[in-house]
């Protein structure tokens, strides 16, 4: 066994001792690679929650994938060679364990050349971990970069293009100061990293007094005590980051208890027209972050479709993840083109790190992010308004971070 | 503090409403119905269907849902539970757990895993003020319903001929049979009532918050805790148990919301350790 | 028979050299199912305790592994430590839960799993998951092979351990307790002790599976690992395979695995089928597939009244 040079099989375990290392190295020689190469086609794996509590995030997937498949139907021509493109789609069922499992399947059984992961840390983080361990390139989105980067070793194969929570809190605070309030901010923050980050950054923002009843559990059915705490502290600004079903429950119970602050800014849950529809008139005037909308002046780098045309083609009210999910494929294609050999995982992964460009979601730049392998997107704010047809639209009311995107209305407080 | 206690009592009423069917089935048939929470969720989905299909408001949907739930309960008793109860200690647990899995996944195939909620109109969003406290009409109605349901069940069991037969059967099915009680219909009725109250509770939960096909598990846990804390098989005890749960939850939440549900579970465990519980 | 078992084991152990990661991926799932079912069967089949809370110890194993790996212990070396931790945690818990039996025991263990889950979410990060530290140094192929061998070892070791337990004095006493606790106590069997040993061993087994799953998925989240769905699987596998036999859980795991591979494209329908089969087996064939059809490969029959 010791005939194998152990140094070529790096294990950073030293305590196993030389013997153990040699044994492991011996065992590892002759291990079989995954069977069945992928041939000439480029395979893209796509992981998103299509069912379960996070299903709203994956609601537009069929449409987005249809557009991407149509745009890539002829395949890609890279370095004078033609590559057909194949997309393999997996549903996480809103579970982190399932996300890891399907990522493993994409890597081992489908032998994909790149994995794309979208929507909440429960998807992006396990999928990125699987890709790092298997050394397969990965691009993720729709997860604030702070959560994606925290608690993991510095990424080499996985990348993220999205907004950040600290930046978002800054934008929210800018909006809050436009209204006349007592500057008391109530925090409806769930017991997860998302909630923790909002708590940390809102508390750090100077000039606001925070009323924090504590982190509640996702899926909580009763918010009476939180509402009581907000009423006691005379909260006039609400900052919330719940998952969609919890927000519906909370905001209805708030109505029952007569809690109506002047400004209600809701990350995560109020991104979606379906949630606004469920709430009906309770949705009027709620503020939500806008990281993508039909009004964005950008085009698809795959076929030149404008954001407007892309959103209109959906046939239903557009959702913000649509744009970023589409952008994932644009980034993947750009990476394939930038790599010397699109079938070489290490080369593709390295190529993503050099990318700078424009997608339907706006500009991305992986060379100058706030953290390794991160490209940061700007964050705007919108307010839900009822349109003449009786439906609710998210109207852009703050474009501080990307003035290229036009404003659509003035911000007005709830009372 | 007082606000927290009042709200806790109201919340506890909802727990008791879910729990009373569980308590009844246990008291009479020694059946721990693991699928109880899922049956409650079914009630909520049925109301949703009634609303979508006929535009029926939740109150009218009751007229449809309750008899249906009663029938389902009786049928389950005659086909599954009865046989399971004869099969020793493990069989009822495994059968009702299996039933729970079937219900959950049928709901997923039929209605998808997306969370839903029932629209109770303006009433469900309104509140009223009493002595500086804002109380929700819906929760108050839930509490009142719990008291009414538990009260009528109590009267039914204590004052009627049917109640006497149920109590006789619960004490000793064989003796009851020998003295001329037809045990099967009695048990079928009790199971029917149990499932009907579950469906009623499910509709209230659907009005108050969102539900999805997997909500049944937590509903069952809370209901079971109410039953155990209140004393097994006692109806008024179940109400007390529900209130204890609700008040504990609200009081702990005053200090930190994170510990509210944990405190309820720990309290339940404390009760188990302190009090001798024998089936 | 035994030579055949050894032959099969050697064949399976060579999979990383012959068939590669695609097959390993599926087999790791199968082996963890075998181990889960085998330990659940020790509780339900031999000690007469249906737990719906074994996911509590899956979680203890996984998070135990996380803490150990964070402290610098090699993740694979830490799997047995995590299992031992789960067994130790189970000891004080057993004092409370073993006061109960039947449906009450079942729900109480479920509540316990919820308590563990909520306790884990009190740590920083809350309900957000954690990544397994200390794994990035492994070459992907080697890591997968190690996970695979650990899974194989765990499955084979679990079956062997439960077989040895079941055919010995302990097994006899446990089955007496399962059949009739009062009669067993009257004939001098220390009922509480028998049940406690089964509970703690089953917890350690679940802990090992939890830790193993973590090395496989590399990411663990409280809501996932503490999910009652794991108990559903354990129950289904043991019931269909055959409660109280050594081979039953293995057969049940195989049945489930095949069903899952064949039917998972049909979404939740296979779970509907699973639940229905579980109910039907309990009511109409309580000895399970193996009990009705199979011949004992791992005989414990010389101690079983026939």
Any key phrases for this structure?
heterotrimer, B: 279 residues, mainly alpha, ABC transporter involved in vitamin B12 uptake, BtuC, two-stranded antiparallel sheet, 2 strands, 79% helix, C: 306 residues, two-stranded antiparallel ribbon, 1% strand, disordered C terminus, ABC transporter substrate-binding protein (chain A), Leu-bd (chain A), BCAA_transport (chain A)
Overview of this protein structure:
The complex is a heterotrimer of chains A (415), B (279) and C (306). Chain A is built from 13 helices and 17 strands. Chain A is of the alpha/beta class. In chain A, the strands form 5 sheets. In chain A, strands 4-1-5-6-7-15 form a 6-stranded parallel beta sheet. The longest helix of chain A is centred in the C-terminal third of the chain and has 19 residues, at 320-338. Chain B is mostly helical and 279 residues long. Chain B has a single domain, classed as ABC transporter involved in vitamin B12 uptake, BtuC, CATH 1.10.3470. In chain B, helix 1 packs antiparallel against helix 9 and helix 7 (161-171) packs across helix 9. With 306 residues, chain C is mainly α. Chain C has a domain at 20-226. In chain C, 75% of the residues lie in helices and 1% in strands. Chain C has 15 helices and 2 strands. The two termini of chain C are 22 Å apart. Chains A and C meet through helix 1, helix 3, helix 4 and helix 7 of A and helix 2, helix 3, strand 1, helix 7 and helix 10 of C.
Number of strands of chain A: 17
Query: Order of SSEs of chain A, N→C?
Result: HEHEEEHEHEHEHEHEHEHEHEHHHEEEEE
Uncertain stretches of chain C:
302-306
Percent helix of chain C: over 70%
Q: Sheet with the most strands of chain A?
A: 6 strands, parallel
The major sheet of chain C is characterized as: 2 strands, antiparallel
The main sheet of chain A orders its strands as 4-1-5-6-7-15
How many angstroms does the end-to-end distance of chain A come to?
77 Å
Distance between the termini of chain C: 22 Å
CA gyration radius of chain A, whole angstroms: 23 Å
């Amino acid at each position: 066994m010791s005939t194998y040079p152990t140094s070529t099989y790096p294990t950073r375990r030293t305590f196993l001792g030389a013997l153990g290392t040699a044994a492991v190295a011996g065992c590892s020689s002759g291990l079989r690679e995954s069977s069945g190469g992928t041939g000439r086609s480029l395979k893209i794996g796509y992981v998103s929650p299509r069912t379960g509590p996070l299903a709203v995030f994956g609601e537009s997937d069929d449409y987005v994938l249809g557009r991407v498949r149509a745009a890539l139907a002829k395949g890609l021509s890279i370095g004078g060679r033609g590559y057909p493109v194949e997309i393999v789609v997996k549903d996480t069922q809103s579970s982190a364990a399932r996300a890891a499992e399907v990522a493993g399947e994409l890597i081992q059984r489908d032998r994909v050349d790149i994995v794309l992961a979208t929507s909440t840390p429960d998807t992006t983080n396990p999928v990125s971990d699987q890709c790092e361990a298997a050394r397969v390139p990965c691009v993720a989105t729709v997860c604030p970069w702070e959560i994606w980067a925290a608690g993991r070793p510095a990424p080499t194969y996985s990348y993220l293009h999205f907004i950040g929570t600290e930046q978002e809190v800054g934008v929210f605070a800018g909006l809050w100061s436009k209204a006349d309030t007592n500057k008391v901010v109530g925090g409806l923050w769930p017991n997860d990293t998302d909630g923790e980050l909002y708590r940390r950054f809102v508390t750090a923002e100077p000039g606001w007094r925070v009323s924090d009843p504590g982190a509640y559990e996702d899926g909580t059915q009763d918010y009476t005590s939180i509402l009581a705490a907000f009423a006691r502290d005379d909260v006039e600004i609400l900052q919330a980051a719940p998952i969609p079903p919890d927000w519906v429950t909370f905001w209805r119970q708030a109505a029952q208890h007569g809690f109506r602050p002047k400004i209600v800014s809701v990350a995560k849950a109020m991104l979606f027209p379906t949630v606004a529809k469920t709430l009906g008139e309770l949705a009027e005037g709620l503020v939500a972050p806008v990281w993508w909308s039909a009004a964005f002046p950008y085009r698809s780098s795959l076929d030149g479709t404008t954001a407007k045309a892309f959103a209109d083609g959906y046939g239903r009210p557009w959702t913000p993840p649509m744009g970023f999910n589409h952008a994932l494929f644009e980034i993947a294609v750009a990476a394939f083109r930038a790599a010397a050999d699109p079938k070489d995982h290490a080369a593709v992964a390295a190529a993503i790190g050099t990318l700078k460009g424009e997608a339907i979601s706006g500009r991305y730049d992986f060379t100058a992010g706030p953290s390794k392998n991160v490209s940061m997107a700007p964050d705007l704010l919108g307010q839900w308004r009822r349109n003449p047809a009786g439906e609710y639209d998210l109207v852009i009311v703050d474009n501080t971070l990307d003035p290229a995107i036009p404003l659509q209305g003035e911000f007005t407080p709830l009372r | 503090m007082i606000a927290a206690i009042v709200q806790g009592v109201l919340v506890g009423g909802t727990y008791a409403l879910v729990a009373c069917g569980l308590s009844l089935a246990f008291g009479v048939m020694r059946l721990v119905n693991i699928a109880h929470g899922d049956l409650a969720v079914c009630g909520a989905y049925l109301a949703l269907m009634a609303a979508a299909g006929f535009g029926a408001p939740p109150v009218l949907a009751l007229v449809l849902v309750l008899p249906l739930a009663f029938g389902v309960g009786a049928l389950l008793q005659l086909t599954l539970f009865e046989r399971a109860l004869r099969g020793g200690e493990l069989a009822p647990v495994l059968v009702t757990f299996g039933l729970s899995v079937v219900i959950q996944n049928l709901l997923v195939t039929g209605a998808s895993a997306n969370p839903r909620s029932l629209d109770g109109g303006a009433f469900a969003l309104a509140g009223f003020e009493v002595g500086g406290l804002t109380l929700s009409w819906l929760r108050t109605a839930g509490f009142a319903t719990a008291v009414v349901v538990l009260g009528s069940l109590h009267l039914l069991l204590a004052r009627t001929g049917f109640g006497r037969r149920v109590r006789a059967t619960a004490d000793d099915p064989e003796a009851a049979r020998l003295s001329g009680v037809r045990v099967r219909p009695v048990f079928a009725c009790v199971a029917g009532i149990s499932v009907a109250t579950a469906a009623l509770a499910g509709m209230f939960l659907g009005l108050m918050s969102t539900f999805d096909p997997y909500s049944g598990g937590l509903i069952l846990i809370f209901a079971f805790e109410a039953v155990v804390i209140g004393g097994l098989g006692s109806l008024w005890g179940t109400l007390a148990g529900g209130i204890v749960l609700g008040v504990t939850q609200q009081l702990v939440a005053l200090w930190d919301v994170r510990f509210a549900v944990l405190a309820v579970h720990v309290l339940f465990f404390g009760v188990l350790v302190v009090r001798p519980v024998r089936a | 028979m035994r030579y055949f078992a050894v032959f099969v084991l050697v064949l399976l152990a060579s999979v990383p050299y012959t068939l590669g990661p695609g097959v390993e991926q599926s087999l790791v799932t199968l082996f963890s199912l075998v181990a889960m079912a085998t330990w659940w069967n020790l509780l339900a089949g031999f000690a007469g305790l249906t737990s719906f809370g074994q996911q509590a110890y899956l979680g203890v194993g996984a998070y135990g592994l996380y803490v150990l790996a964070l402290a610098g212990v090699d993740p694979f070396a830490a799997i047995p430590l995590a299992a031992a931790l789960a067994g130790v945690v189970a000891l004080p818990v057993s004092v409370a839960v073993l006061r109960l039996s039947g449906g009450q025991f079942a729900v109480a263990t479920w509540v316990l799993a919820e308590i563990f889950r909520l306790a884990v979410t009190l740590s920083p990060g809350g309900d957000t998951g954690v990544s397994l530290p200390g794994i990035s140094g492994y070459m992907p192929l080697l890591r997968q092979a190690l996970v695979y061998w650990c899974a194989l070892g765990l499955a084979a070791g679990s079956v062997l351990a439960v077989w040895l337990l079941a055919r010995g004095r302990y097994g006899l006493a446990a089955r007496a307790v399962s059949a009739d606790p009062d009669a067993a106590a009257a004939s001098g069997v220390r009922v509480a002790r028998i049940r406690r040993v089964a509970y703690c061993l089953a917890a350690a087994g679940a802990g090992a599976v939890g830790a193993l799953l973590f090395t496989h998925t590399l990411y663990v989240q409280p809501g996932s690992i503490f999910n009652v769905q794991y108990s559903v699987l354990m129950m289904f596998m043991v019931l269909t395979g055959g409660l109280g036999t050594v081979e039953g859980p293995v057969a049940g795991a195989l049945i489930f695995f095949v069903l899952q591979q064949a039917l998972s494209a049909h979404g939740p329908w296979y779970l509907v089928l699973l639940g229905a089969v579980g109910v039907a087996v309990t009511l109409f064939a309580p000895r399970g597939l193996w009990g009705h059809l199979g011949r004992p490969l791992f005989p414990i029959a010389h101690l079983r009244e026939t």
